[in-house]
Each structure stands twice: as structure tokens, then as C-alpha cells.
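Running log. JK asked me to keep both predictions on one page so they can be read side by side. First protein, sequence followed by its C-alpha cells:
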Amino acid sequence: MLVLGVDPGSRITGYGLVDKKDNLVSCVEAGVISSPGNVPFYERIHKIYISMVEIMDRYQPGEMAIEDVFFAKNVKSSLKLGHARGAALIAAVNCGVKVFEYTPLEIKKSVVGYGRATKEQIGAMVQVILKHPKRFGPDISDALATAICHLNWTRFE
């Protein structure tokens, strides 16, 4: 099963495609969708949407896992995050990809075993789980962790 994991952000959105065959989990593709801060916000959101559609068209994932809304101290940052998340969700719906949402706590517990794990711990465990020779950046690691979390949850359903 090929799963697209997404770590939404208005400046940097991480994505990772994880495939599971015969209990072996591997990274098919991973990267970031980024825009400089001087690009108008609506153009950054549009780029996320267009890029997500291109990724889904190219790789044809069966499902997409994305981090669920969480509460942040900065309301403006939360709203911008929500827009980026919405762009990815709309792209998935338009491409016919089933969407699954997980809280940050669920993702961390699923990958690291501890709900308050640091970004470094998540990155290290993603590297170990995927048997990847190098550590991914934090946005990519979070996206891959989200996909791995989904694969772990679907195992029990």
C-alpha cells in the first residue's frame, strides 16, 4: 500500500510517500514544497495545492495521512497552517485519494512510542524504520512519520 504523508506549513510543506509490502516499509519519494516569505500568501497556498496534485497524479497513492488540527498559542500561525492543510486536503479530494487525519500525539506515539517526542527523536526513528542511510530534514521526517503512523493504525483496523 502506497501512502502519502503530509506535514503542512504555509512556507514549507513536507511530504513523503511510504510503501508497505510484506511488512517491509520503504520510502518511495520525499521532499518539501517551499516558497520564500516574500511570495504573497495566496500564491504559497496555490503552490501547495498544485504541487500536491502533481505528486498524487505522478505516484497514485491509495491514501493520504495528514496531521490533524492542533491548538497553538499564535492564532495567526494557526490560521495560516489551516490554509496550507486545506490546500492539501482539497488536492486529495480532487485526486480521489482517501484522507486520514492523526493528531501530533498519535503520530509521535506510533513512531517513537512517546507522545512528547522531539523532532530529533522522530527523525531518528523514521531513519531507523525506513532503513534510510541519512536523516531527513524535520519537515520531511514529520511527513514520513505521519505516513508510517497511518500504516501502523491500518494494521489494527
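And the second, directly underneath as requested:
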Amino acid sequence: MMQPSILGYVERKSFADMHCSVAQCLEVVGEWWSMLIVRDAMLGVTRFDQFQERLGISRNILKQRLDDLTEHGVLEKVPYSEHPPRHEYRLTAKGQDLGPVVTTMRQWGDKYAAPDGPPIQLVHERCGTVFHAEMTCSNCGERVPASEVRVMSGPGDLDRLLDIGGM
């Protein structure tokens, strides 16, 4: 696939053969429009024309991204009209699991790219407070700053080649 850039045409690299979970995630949702489609689906957008209107994306690119996200199981295509045939796109459990990724990206954008303040805020319905997601330990529940994280080989590192001190 060739994408135009200021420098001319750049061929997109595939990460399919890279033995890295981040690379594999990017293989599915790393195209420019994919995470914005996922974001809008999380906000309740389901129909092609709604995505197209909100994003201002060309119809052919939107169709390609929706097809890719559906093929990878992030979205499912569900019929809502037989005459004419129409479908909506709903997040699967796999797609909903991208929620923390979208939230972290939004928080980063709020901090570094939103000079007038956050365009949206998340409210915890139970207590009614605007909140910021933080990484916590699933065992003890404490907040985990990056300085307290050590990386080690996991069961998928079959060659046990990973030897990295921290993040």
C-alpha cells in the first residue's frame, strides 16, 4: 500500500512478522483512521454515514478501514435494514478492550496537545467525579509509575531473548 507524503510515496511496513505485542496491535489498529473509528464507535457511532460525517474521511478509505477492523474482529457488521441492505458496525469484546488505549491516547493529547484544555472529560458514574485513568497493579491495587516497572520475558518469548531493565 502506498501513502502519499511530503517526501513522495512511502510504502507502509507490515509488522506481521515482528514478535512484539505492540507491533501486533499496530498491525490491526495502526492506520491513521483506525483508532478514530474505534473512538467514535466507543462514543456510540455505528453507521457508515455517521462515521463519514464525523470524521470527514473519504468513503473509500472509511470502507477499507471498517472492513479491516471487521476482518480483525474489532468490529462486527450487523444488518439493520433488508431493503435496502444496510449494516451498522458495533464493537466486539476485542474492540471494547481498546478502551484503555483510547483513554490513554486521549489523556496524552489533553496534556500535550490541547492548549485550551480537554475537549471531553470522563466522569465516574458511581461517584460523579471527573477522573483520569491510571495504571494500577492488579494484585495490590496500588498506582504503578513507569519508574517502578521492570520488564521480563513472558511465556510468549519462546527464545527467551528479552533482557530489558525497565520501561
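Observation for JK regarding the second prediction: Residues 1-8 have pLDDT under 50 and may be disordered.
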